[in-house]
Amino acid sequence: MEVAPPKGRSGGAAWGLWLARRLGLAVLTLWLVSVVVFLATAALGDPVRAILGRDYDSNVARRQQLEAQLGVGDSIVSRYVDWLGGLVRGDFGTSLANQLPVGTQISSTVANTLVLVLLSALVMIPLAFGIAMVSAHYRRKRPDTVIQTILLALAGVPEFVTGILLVAVFSTSVFNVLPAVTLVAPGASPWDEPKGMVLPVATLVVAVTPYVSRIVRATLLEVLDSDYVELARLKGIPEPVVMRKHALLNAIVPGIQVIALQLAWLAGGVVLVETLFSYPGVGKQLVDAVRNHDVPVVQALSMIIAGVYIVVNLVADLLSILLTPRARTAISS
């Protein structure tokens, strides 16, 4: 809920105060996430024993090296302060699996996931709005019923099941036109082989589009029943123009909110999809890091996912206010 600034402030000062409050809330949220992430990884037990396994007692040198690296002998508060200070400086620590800097190790996978999410959004947003407009145009008629039935069915299917079905159709004897996994040569990027990205992108689009489309449709129906839309119809404005210039513009703000939620979900919810298609992104690397008990990598990726989630929602709030005259007036007044 937005709080209007005190009376008498100029528009620029009011916007600055609002933005400062939102940024402060975002930083506070990110700090709370860092506390949860650190305590959760610390509660998993002795990381040195988990990493060495049977060699814990025999490999004393390696054990002492890991204990010094992880600061096992220090208090949990001291370890958290050191880790948080490193995050603020942009130092994510050193990977326990290969002794490489975490920042260097995860930079390419973060970029790969951002590209995957961006491509999915570029396909999903116009597709979801188009489906919502067609469905709202034919509301309570057979096309609307068919579209809503399909969307409900797709919304109830988990993304990994959708991915498996797409592989079965397009990567086996049915059509066999797309690779079942994303094969990336060393030093190359996934988009160097566009065919390998088709199925991961399609899986994410199918998983997200039903939710966005149904929210936008509901908003469109509400707007189409409003008085000013009826007045536009009485003036003889064609229905397609009414849909585009009157209804769709007023449905954008709720659409932005649900799109932001879905994009934030994509940033952390690609784990199953990337693992299924062996896509070299954040999700697959997070699974590998958990398997290898690579605590610094798990912590870094968790914080990056949380940061993306917070930034996406902050941008969505800003766009919603900019596109809502009443909200702009409340802040500027």
Q: What keywords describe this structure?
A:
single chain, 333 residues, mainly alpha, MetI-like fold, 14 helices, 0% strand, flat, disordered N terminus
Give the overall form. Answer: flat
| CATH homologous superfamily grouping of the largest domain | MetI-like
- Measured between the Cα atoms of the first and last residue, the distance is 17 Å
Strand content: under 5%
Q: What name does CATH use for the topology of the largest domain?
A: MetI-like fold
CATH top level assignment of the largest domain: Mainly Alpha
Structural class: mainly alpha
Rg over CA atoms, rounded to whole Å, is: 24 Å
Count of individual beta strands: 0
Poorly predicted runs are: 1-8
Estimate percent helicity: over 70%
Q: Oligomeric form of this entry?
A: single chain
Order of helices and strands: HHHHHHHHHHHHHH
Overall mean pLDDT stands at 82
Query: What number of structural domains do the residues give?
Result: 2
Q: What report would you give on this structure?
A:
The protein has helices at residues 11-42, 47-52, 60-70, 76-89, 102-137, 142-155, 159-170, 195-224, 227-234, 239-269, 271-276, 282-291, 295-322, 325-332. It is mainly alpha-helical and 333 residues long. It folds into 2 domains: 11-89, no CATH class; 102-332, Orthogonal Bundle (MetI-like fold), CATH 1.10.3720. The longest helix has 36 residues, at 102-137. It is flat. Residues 1-8 have low confidence and may be disordered.
